[in-house]
Design goal:
Number of helices: 17
Strand order of the largest sheet: 2-1-4-5-6-7
CATH topology of one domain: Rossmann fold
Helix content: 40-55%
Structural class: alpha+beta
CATH superfamily of one domain: P-loop containing nucleotide triphosphate hydrolases
Length: 567
């Protein structure tokens, strides 16, 4: 739900912040006070188009910020994660428009594109009136609403799983067929490459081992001479390190008999003597193992040369050569068994297409049943809302396809499928006697559209996932009994959603859970729009004003209390 709306330097609004409770929220005020400006600002923060004209004269930029309680919506959470925006139960959406026409969007202080902000807005708020944010006027949403109302998510999900399998099988078959000629043309070439690699039979890590051995053999003379000299220096020669350490150790032991402070030094010198002795043994043993083997040296160079040639041809490393070998083995195997693999894949494709056809038929049947219920309910609601000759219908159609990879059979026809079956759904409406039904997206505007939306929302309320509904001009062209019906419909709808409505009708305003008045004042010789929440007494007076005009009498106040069901 919408918690707060803060607006700065937008049109006639200098600065205001409004907190909204749950339930039915009513906005009233004189014509021109700025009620629709308030709704326009909300539309802007939800991603509608903006121009520099909306920036208050003299200001650098307009800023609109809305705070929503938005936990528990998996689609919204997924959208935030996709765009690396930190989520949570509270969502702060901000829009800035500069006087030069530049626009910036933020969600929880993270910058986002306008497209992302618009997507987000469509998951949070439905605006009805002279605004673009009208989900029911987008044909692509009609099928979703029918499925939600009919509780078809389960079976639609089954179809979507089957449809995914069908797409995968179709993609694999298309890929396989496209590769058939290439596989046949390259079979002999791949066989030659495999033979060439297998003649050398490289193995992982072999090159590093060979290079290490080659480095030792190429430096055998240096290793032999250096280790010999080192052995003499440490142990074998006259005045070796070992001999000198023995002399030092003996002298330290003699000194220790005089002064025990030399005991530790004598011990350390003995340790050093042992270390040198062990080191000398290692060097002597290494010297004895040094190998002079020209044949092995040549063999290593030849082997590394073979590996080098393979590396140049097949990827630059032994690992790449081995990966290429695995690939061509798979391709040769595929070419050798192509007909068998193609037959198996064809069987999988037929099974997937049959599963899709069965599930699409079941979905379509349930969708037709649901559509009849929706048509009766919405037609009845529209008549209650002052459109007595309304006729509403949900039209479900299919598109026949020629030989399409994703088409499924329905009777004797092939039907093109989509992500929800093979149905296309669109709402049609006629509001006048004798008038043909036309697509809902083209039939009406203003208050009539709002009443159509209200009727649809009333019967779709439990299934509609949008938490906030905003109605601008809901009362245009209605009065009396119809106004009361509109008010009750809004009140009932507020049991499932937060409903914000602009109205001039006391029958609607009297049902408010929270009532705000929008008014215009002068500040520094400029008009300024402000908003204030009314107390209960002020609400009674405002409803009385809507009933009887500017002069409010005791009788008018009593009528307002009666309308509001106050004692």
């Amino acid at each position: 739900m919408l918690r707060t709306l803060t607006i700065r330097n937008y049109a006639l609004i200098e600065e205001l912040s409004v907190e909204f409770p749950n339930g039915l929220v009513i906005l009233t005020g004189e014509t021109g006070a700025g009620k629709s400006i308030l709704i326009g600002a909300l539309g802007l923060v939800l991603g509608e188009r903006a121009s520099s004209d909306i920036v208050r004269s003299g200001a650098d930029k307009a800023v609109i910020e809305a705070t929503f309680q938005a936990g528990g919506n998996p689609q919204l959470r997924a959208l935030l994660e996709t765009h690396a925006v930190e989520g949570g139960n509270e969502l702060i959406v901000r829009r800035e428009v500069s006087a030069k026409g530049q626009s910036r969007c933020f969600v929880n202080d993270s910058p986002v594109t306008l497209a992302v902000q618009k997507q987000l807005g469509e998951m949070l708020v439905d605006l009805h009136g002279q605004h673009e944010h009208q989900s029911l006027l987008r044909v692509e949403t009609h099928i979703l609403m029918v499925d939600d109302f009919g509780g078809l998510d389960g079976i639609v999900g089954e179809f979507q799983d089957a449809h995914t399998r069908l797409r995968e099988c179709t993609g694999r078959l298309t890929d396989l067929q496209a590769r058939e000629r290439m596989l046949k043309e390259k079979h002999e070439f791949y066989a030659f490459q495999l033979q060439e690699i297998d003649r050398v039979m490289p193995r992982q890590g072999e090159e590093e081992e060979l290079e290490a051995e080659l480095r030792i053999l190429e430096n055998s003379e240096r290793l032999y001479g250096a280790t010999g000299k080192l052995y003499d220096l440490l142990y074998g020669g006259d005045q070796s390190v070992h001999d000198l350490l023995v002399v030092a150790r003996n002298q330290l032991q003699d000194l220790a008999e005089i002064d025990r402070q030399f005991t530790s030094a004598a011990t350390e010198c003995s340790s050093a003597e042992e270390i040198v002795k062990e080191l000398s043994k290692f060097i002597q043993a290494y010297n004895a193992r040094v190998e002079f083997n020209p044949e092995r040296l040549e063999s290593l160079r030849e082997r590394l040369g073979q590996l080098s040639l393979l590396k140049k041809k097949y990827g630059g490393s032994v690992d790449a050569v081995l990966a290429h070998r695995e690939m061509i083995v798979r391709e040769i195997d595929l070419a050798d068994n192509f007909d068998h693999i193609l037959s198996d894949l064809g069987s999988d494709l037929d099974a997937a297409r049959e599963a899709c056809a069965v599930l699409a038929q079941r979905v379509s049947a349930k969708r037709h049943e649901t559509a009849k219920k929706i048509d009766r309910a919405i037609t009845s609601e529209l008549q209650k809302l002052g459109i007595p000759h309304a006729r509403f219908s949900t039209r479900i159609s299919q598109s026949e396809a020629a030989e399409s990879p994703l088409a499924v059979r329905a009777g004797n026809a092939l039907m093109e499928t989509n992500g929800r079956g093979y149905d296309r759904v669109e709402f049609f409406l006629s509001t006048n006697l004798g008038e043909e039904q036309r697509p809902l997206v083209r039939v009406a505007s203003g208050g009539e559209v709002s009443r159509v939306m209200l009727a649809m929302k009333t019967i779709l309320a439990k299934s509609d996932r949008l938490p906030v509904l905003v109605f601008d001009e809901i009362d245009v062209g209605v009065s009396g009994r119809v106004a009361q019906a509109v008010g009750m419909a809004l009140k009932n709808l507020s049991g499932f959603h937060q409903v914000i409505a602009i109205t001039h009708l006391p029958q609607i305003a009297g049902l408010a859970d929270a009532h705000y008045v929008v008014y215009k004042t002068e500040k520094g010789k400029r008009s300024v729009t402000s908003v204030r929440r009314l107390s209960l007494d002020e609400q009674v007076r405002e409803v009385a004003t809507l009933m009887s005009g500017a002069e409010v009498t005791e009788a008018g106040l009593a009528g307002a209390r009666e309308l509001m069901k106050l004692k």
